[in-house]
Amino acid sequence: MRKLDLSGFDKGNFGNNVEICCEEFISTGRFVLGDNVTIKAQKIVLGNNARIENDVMIRSLRGNMELFSMGDESLLGFNSQVLVPELKMGDYSQIFNSALVSGHKSVTIGHNCWVGQGAILNSAETLSIGNNVRMGGSQIWTHVASGELLEGSNFYNEAPVTIEDNVWLMGFGHTVVPGVTLARNSVIMAGSVVTRSTEAFKTYSGIPATDVTDKLPAWQQMTLDDKFVKLQEFTAEFVQQHPQYSGSVFCADNASMLAGQLKRGEPSLFFFKQTDLDDHVNNVHSVFDLTSKQYVKRRSDIEVSWVKFALGYRARFIPYDM
Questions:
Q1: CA angle at residue 70 from 58 to 109, to 5 degrees?
Q2: What whole-number distance in Å separates Cα of residue 134 and Cα of residue 163?
Q3: Of 126, 144, 145, 302, which is least packed with CB atoms within 10 Å of its CB?
Q4: Model pTM greater than 0.85?
Q5: Residue 71 CA to chain centroid, in angstroms?
Q6: What's the whole-number mean pLDDT along residues 152-165?
């Protein structure tokens, strides 16, 4: 790998003592690297407005890191270490300060994820984290391997961990053991130790974590019509907070109801209860389909403002794979 001359990057905002070693560097927009940042990977991909804070080390535990990739508007917090052969983070995903991502296998993190300070993401085996996953300073382990086998230790295991879409590890202090799958929309209460795979839309708590959905139901049934009404409330709130976008946000059941508005030249937001996103890939607008929870990404100012407004707790959409 070669050390890059940073003076040639007009899109990069570099702090002091930054070192980048790679064979291929791709940036899709402006990015920020703080003081004392080191990245050593064969291929580096930084999305638009990706940000790495001060005192971050990114490399492999042994040999060369193959790929380090951060999506648009993503964050890697200060004093963090990434020591894996491959890390891929999606758009708007954030790993906050003092995190440790370490192991000999790949780590994949989807879009709109939030990983709190001091988290441990271990990848002795592969670790796969889906979209819209939220966790505090959790510990996710793909291995248990400190007992001495020669003396008869029963505690040895290396197995992948999968965390599916919309999982929420609420609060702080969770431990997830090797080999489990946290099913989509399952909720893990603070301080729990997850030793078995979970079921979708269930709530778990305790050591070991057990199903407490009857006492703490985390979700209510929402029809598509219910969701659309709620979405209209959120877009109205968005325009109220961002009056500069008044007249540029539209909601309708389907695209035919706004055919004229879709011919506008100014980038706008269109929210449809149901639409074929393939029909909208060639215009300038950000089009959101409520049925699939996907959108045609344009990276316009209005789109970025909306996604940041919505993704905390209101609504989370995933970029459409065009």
A1: 95
A2: 10
A3: 145
A4: yes
A5: 9
A6: 93
